[in-house]
Amino acid sequence: xxxxxxxxxxxxxxxxxxxxxxxxxxxxxxxxxxxxxxxxxxxxxxxxxxxxxxxxxxxxxxxxxxxxxxxxxxxxxxxxxxxxxxxxxxxxxxxxxxxxxxxxxxxxxxxxxxxxxxxxxxxxxxxxxxxxxxxxxxxxxxxxxxxxxxxxxxxxxxxxxxxxxxxxxxxxxxxxxxxxxxxxxxxxxxxxxxxxxxxxxxxxxxxxxxxxxxxxxxxxxxxxxxxxxxxxxxxxxxxxxxxxxxxxxxxxxxxxxxxxxxx
Length: 263
Known about the structure:
The structure is a single chain. This protein is 35% helix and 23% strand. It is α/β, with parallel strands linked by helices. A hairpin with a 2-residue loop joins strand 4 and strand 5. The two termini are 35 Å apart.
């Protein structure tokens, strides 16, 4: 019997270790131009590489230039076209909120409300501080609240994963689309760091995993030595090229291996 158990372990354990939980799944990608298949900065996006490596079926709804306030629309389109058949949803957005100077805002509104509690076998009531998500579409945290409240109601049994914005260099597309690098604060006085940190905080607020691409994928477009990972060393260090998307995909390949794709 002992020899049989050892033989079974020798056969099964390597297979379990080599099996990726996202293999062969159907995954929706919501976001902006970095994910948008119509953006030509890269021929092969990170999600296409994950599809190649893991056999993931990608359903991509990202649109160039969009901000967090567009996520409910993208999610509704996903529901209309695929219903409940998606296994997981990945959201990669936020850099345009920074560029458009959306205030960070707050997670909660607070007031005083009466609540009941038990005390020595008797039920009593008293006023206590009470909070609820701030559903403010004009702020970054408010937009995340609105989007994740909508997504969790649409897909209560699905895995939802957030990706932080990556670091960004300058993007000089035209006289009407001239975007500075993260070295500068935006028009409301916030650096990109604040938007990355708010995305990290959403993990605790909404009980969703956040993959910190800002730190984990290593892309640093403000350094000339990392210009090789972006679309154009002079005019576009915002959008990763094929090499940059490969770094993102490799990071996700490893990070997603620690997460269930569904429940």
